[in-house]
Amino acid sequence: MLLRVLADGVPIDCGGVADGFTGCYGKLPAIGIAAVATIAAAAVVGHAVLAALVPQLFNAMTGVPTGGGEGLLGGGSPTVKVGGLRVPVLPSIGPSVPFAGRVLLVGEGNFSFTAANLGLGRAIPQNVTATAYSPDGRFPPDVLSRADQLRAMGANVRLQVDARNLPADLAGGAPFNTVIFQFPHPGGPRTGASVAGRQLMRDFFASAAQRLAPGGKVVLTLRNQHYVSHWRPAEAAAAAGLRLESVTEFHQGHYPGYGHVTTSAGATSPDVSQGFTFVFTRG
Ligand SMILES: C[S@@+](CC[C@H](N)C(=O)[O-])C[C@H]1O[C@@H](n2cnc3c(N)ncnc32)[C@H](O)[C@@H]1O
User: Fold this and answer.
1) Residue 33 has what pLDDT?
2) Which residues form a coiled coil (predicted)?
3) pTM (predicted TM-score)
């Protein structure tokens, strides 16, 4: 078939979607059109990649834990999977571990978390009972001397209090409005840590619930999703009649002077610069 040609050289039946650019319009426009199409496709793909990555990059730069989860609230909001459900992690711009009323801290390690909160003026020392526990019953000199400093301020400091046995180890006295366990760990070999951690959670919540004032809160901070999944704190709390009220970002930097210690002396100190703070209340 003969092509009829317009004055400027473009065949008049060009313009259908099946027309070859080169045949209809010549080589130069075809290269231009292909280049524009390639740039447009790259822009679309680039935008999609950025949209997916920017929230995670922003969270990583600002230290917000993501819990390894998808955004529940859209826009990559951090979440943590608790008891089979994805729960939003509330942001914190300052100290967010509740510290109200009569406060009991268990498993305090070196007592620096207690000292940091008192230093921030979050409670009067007379309302604070800080306790530590050691598998062999021994405590290093720096721990003993910080315990003495806190006592001198007016806090009640007790050694060798077992978080699994609070009714006996802290017998008598008024119940607590806030019971706090920061970064619990049973110690011992890594291989049995999941089972031992889960048992510690069950025993701690059962014990804490018995010393809790009406409307009181049990507060637990864990490092990451791994511990939440393996130690199952929400299930342990539920078995003790407590329900999850909130999960908030934990930032070590909000507590000046707070330095972490491990359960087993000499163990590698983990990164506790951030984590999840769980607040449970009687359901
Ligand atoms: C990883 S350390 C964290 C110490 C401290 N809370 C901190 O944030 O640095 C875990 C703590 O849990 C304590 N712990 C383990 N089993 C305990 C129990 N049955 N009762 C009380 N504390 C316990 C250990 O003595 C240890 O101090």
Assistant:
1) 52
2) none
3) 0.77
User: Which tens digit of pLDDT belongs to each residue from 204-240?
Assistant: 999 999 999 999 999 999 999 999 999 999 999 999 9
Kindly state whether residue 43 falls inside one of the protein's structural domains. Answer: yes
Q: What's the CA-to-centroid distance between 10 and ligand 1, angstroms?
A: 82
The DSSP code for 5 is B
pLDDT in tens, 133-183: 998 999 999 999 999 999 999 999 999 999 999 999 999 999 999 999 999
* Total domains present in the chain: 2
Residue span of the structural domain in which 29 resides: 1-62
Residue nearest to atom 27 of ligand 1 (CA): 109
Same domain (yes/no): 185, 46 = no
Cα 185 to middle of ligand 1, angstroms: 6
- Specify whether the backbone of 219 is left (phi greater than 0), alpha (psi in -120 to 50) or beta: beta
167's tokens: 């009714």
Reading the block at residue 245, the tokens are 């009220």
